[in-house]
Amino acid sequence: MLVVENLYAGYGTSKVLTGASLEVAQGKIVALIGANGAGKTTTMRAISGMLKPDKGRVLLDGKPVQGLDASRIARLGLAHSPEGRKVFGPLSTEDNLLLGAYSHLPLFFGFRAKSARGLERVYDLFPLLRERRLQAAGTLSGGEQQMLAIGRALMANPKVMLLDEPSMGLAPVIVQEVFNTIRRLKAEGITLLLVEQFAKSALEVADYGYVMERGRIVAEGAPSELHKDKRVLEAYLG
Q: Distance between CA 124 and CA 30 in Å, rounded?
């Protein structure tokens, strides 16, 4: 469903990715773990079009999308829930969710009616968002904003979802709620690439994992295999 081949990308003269490759099969959750600065978020940005790759290929459902604008990639079926949540603070919770649906619904006639099903799906997943639907997103708690960021991505009804550091800055009890949500997404058959600072928790929900160091993949395998890798165990799972 998502294939990244020999990806190079960076910022100006700083080259962050130096030949990264990974795959996410349909209906699977894949975890990308590594230390801060390893290139995980840059990988996500290069996949979704927020950053133009210097070299390499990104295939979404078999079609090359590297170099396309982020809006075009979104319309082709990829949704990116970014690091730091990036909600639109002055807008209501529900308006934030509706913005997530713009990639695949008509812009004018019938938009509200056709987005109703998506809203119900998100509100069923996150009942608190239903209660906060008229509240300005900027006044939500950190955990509620993370729910909103995930819900906004789901409103696009994506083929593939990128979830970048969903637990960042959250209290431990809220982190557990976030991972429970990821488990529910897994049960629904969502295809998801997860970047997460808590490597152990990420591998607990993943079907497959990649370890990134200095812009390259240095280890990969099923979670059970990575737990047996001495270097991975000492560096990320100890």
A: 25
